[in-house]
Task: inverse folding
């Protein structure tokens, strides 16, 4: 019953998203969007807004003269964005596409965009997803183009970090109650941007140094031979705290790191199973498969179980495509078959995988 209630809450959050994100970011989300428009948006440029959400930045940029493409994984967010675009009669200036960030390689040509923006999205991704996404952004950005990333980072100063967590906790609780969403912070974007082939041009920090706006340019002669194969260690899924939380508040999100788990001694013909990154689900499945040699792909579903994730738009074909691409599973098997959980049928369009 609690799972059903949580699923219905998730379905109805898009209209409240902007309000919630503005609260948890200390109103920096709106300030950053205004800054991007003032500094980087020019008439007739080709712009990509990654994780466009309800379309706030895309619409403002289009009104400033840019030709904007917005992508977002959430159908609900895009529905709100489309209504807003229609209200401003910007249908010829803004194009929306439902897509996860790791699917950009199939959507856009190389060297296509003058400006790529991403506000409070890259920091929400897991490390493998960020690495994949930044490499794709490098590919589709023009040689003289600009990348602007805004997101939460952890303050380097210990005192500021303590104060940041102290201030942020009540904001995070209020945001979750209002919009059933939140944000994550990462140590830094800098090294990941450099590893993806970018040169950092400018950095701005606010809110105790916890909110970063990074501007970067593309290094033209950058090449990488990095393998995508990076299995998650099996013992990383065990946590006493998470286990206690499973049974106290099991209808709330309780995530583990998405990615590949190798169970037993699988070979290139072994089965590939998929599940959500809900802690209790992953632990139970691994226990059930302890005598089976196979690969387990844990999809990013916001730490929500399969049924609620599928019904609430978190476990979709996009999240499954994400883990397939970022896990490097194609390097380990010689087939293209995956075994999906029955309860994901409501949210996963199998023909798209």
Result:
């Amino acid at each position: 019953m609690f799972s059903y209630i949580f699923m219905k809450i998730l379905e109805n959050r898009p209209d409240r998203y902007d309000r919630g994100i503005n609260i948890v970011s200390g109103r920096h989300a709106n300030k950053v969007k205004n800054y991007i428009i003032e500094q980087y948006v020019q008439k007739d440029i080709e712009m990509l807004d990654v994780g466009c959400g309800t379309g706030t930045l895309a619409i403002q940029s289009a009104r400033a003269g840019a030709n904007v493409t917005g992508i977002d994984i959430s159908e609900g967010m895009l529905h709100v964005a489309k209504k807003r675009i229609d209200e401003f009669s910007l249908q010829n200036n803004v194009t929306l596409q439902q897509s996860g960030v790791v699917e950009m390689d199939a959507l856009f040509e190389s060297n296509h965009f003058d400006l790529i923006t991403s506000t409070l999205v890259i920091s929400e991704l897991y490390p493998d997803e960020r690495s994949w996404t930044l490499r794709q952004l490098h590919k589709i950005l023009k040689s003289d183009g600009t990348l602007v990333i805004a997101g939460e980072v952890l303050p380097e100063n210990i005192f500021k970090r303590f104060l940041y967590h102290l201030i942020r906790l009540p904001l995070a609780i209020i945001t979750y109650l209002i919009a059933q969403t939140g944000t994550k912070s990462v140590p830094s974007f800098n090294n990941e941007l450099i590893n993806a082939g970018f040169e950092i041009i400018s950095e701005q920090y606010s809110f105790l140094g916890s909110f970063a706006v990074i501007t970067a340019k593309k290094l033209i002669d950058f090449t990488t031979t990095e393998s995508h194969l990076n299995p998650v260690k099996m013992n990383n899924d065990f946590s006493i705290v998470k286990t206690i939380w499973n049974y106290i508040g099991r209808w709330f999100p309780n995530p583990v790191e998405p990615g590949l788990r190798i169970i037993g001694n699988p070979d290139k013909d072994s089965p590939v199973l998929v599940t959500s990154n809900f802690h209790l689900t992953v632990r139970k499945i691994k226990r059930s498969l302890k005598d089976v040699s196979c690969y387990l792909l844990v999809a990013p579903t916001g730490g929500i179980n399969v049924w609620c994730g599928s019904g609430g738009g978190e476990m979709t074909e996009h999240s499954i495509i994400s883990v397939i691409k970022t896990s490097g599973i194609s390097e380990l098997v010689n087939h293209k078959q995956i075994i999906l959980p029955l309860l994901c049928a409501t949210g996963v369009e199998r023909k798209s995988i």
